[in-house]
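User: Fold this one for me? It's HORMA domain-containing protein.
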Amino acid sequence: MSLEREKHKPKVHKLSLKGSSKLVAEFFQYSINTILFQRGVYPAEDFTAVKKYGLTMLVSSDDQVKAYIKKIMSQLDKWMVDGKISKLVVVITSKDTGEHVERWQFDVQIFSRPKKSKSSSKSTNKENAAPASDAPLPAEKTEVEIQAEIQSIFRQITASVTFLPQLDGDCTFNVLVYADADSEVPMEWGDSDAKEIKNGEKVQLRSFSTASHKVDTLVSYRVGD
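Assistant: Here's what I get for HORMA domain-containing protein.
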């Protein structure tokens, strides 16, 4: 789902939980592509320009990368709507050393959760399930305001090349999704460690929020020896 801007109607539009979930999932998709382009994980010629959020975004045209991201997004969409995602992480790893050199973390706060189906026979694990946030609900915003916050994050990701160390050699990437313990996980998804950056620096970037979600952005990176 995309949010189209109505220039003549800056009215407050309260996204439903489902609509907000789709918006966040879509934001993740463009974030992954933007990070891969800006950090030079793949050649610039492997990306295609598209218009999104009032910006020119670059998305991968590499078949393998597109298939990988599509597989992630198809599952992420379901988990987001069910309120089961607490975090998405993009980890960049050196092919030469196997060392994790950059880690982009997107923390998801949920202000309202979908109601559990009464017919569900599964018991929820309350210890492991991420509870809804106790933080006060954010003020309702216009679609233009939400888009402006998203624009700011992408501009920060683009500007990150000014402080992040240049990536040496060939790199690859992985996407980690933190889901509730009772989430139904497809066979092709495997458990993973957190892939933290050892002795890394951390920089907190901007956030955006809707009436249902807040997404905070953080990048960790390896500093020189």
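One thing worth pointing out: The first strand starts at residue 47 and ends at 52.
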